[in-house]
Design brief:
- Helix content is 44%, strand content 13%.
- The protein is of the alpha+beta class and 139 residues long.
- Helix 1 (6-17) crosses helix 2 (23-40), helix 1 crosses helix 6 and helix 2 packs across helix 6 (81-94).
- It is globular and about 45 Å long.
- 25% of the residues are buried.
Length: 139
């Protein structure tokens, strides 16, 4: 039996949210999850699968128990093992608060810059940081 841990939830989220972006962008995305965890006093899986928080979770309901690893990767449509390994590496790096992510301390949301219109929720937030692919916000 495989039970999905908080670290695996964060890695799956990064696999879904930041393939094709830089490691720093992945780490910033994970810091958003960590900041939400701290604000809400919830675990990573609860934060990630909270309604309307991440677009990929709308199509993939929360499931945390699997018979084996292959069933889990099939369920979450993880086809690139190297990208999942990269996601795990970025989860680890984003948890090190002494690193280069000092700008991430109070960011709780982000949006993909390729979206034509800024999300409605973003209008009431302050831009905290911008990267090539994302705009990060603080509430």
């Amino acid at each position: 039996m495989l039970i999905v841990s908080a670290q695996l939830c964060m890695a799956i989220n990064l696999y879904k949210e930041c393939r094709g972006t830089s490691d720093k962008e992945c780490q910033l995305i994970n810091r958003v999850v960590i900041n939400r965890m701290q604000q809400s006093n919830q675990d990573a899986c609860s934060v990630i699968f909270e309604k309307n928080q991440f677009s990929w979770t709308k199509k993939t309901p929360k499931k945390l128990q699997f018979e084996n690893y292959q069933e889990m990767t099939s369920y979450y449509k993880i086809y690139e093992a190297d990208q999942l390994a990269r996601a795990f590496d970025n989860v680890d790096k984003s948890q090190d608060e002494s690193g280069s992510l000092q700008t991430a301390g109070n960011m709780t949301h982000y949006a993909d810059r390729s979206l034509h219109n800024q999300p409605k929720w973003a209008h009431r937030m302050q831009v905290a940081y911008q990267t090539k692919y994302f705009v990060f916000y603080k509430a």
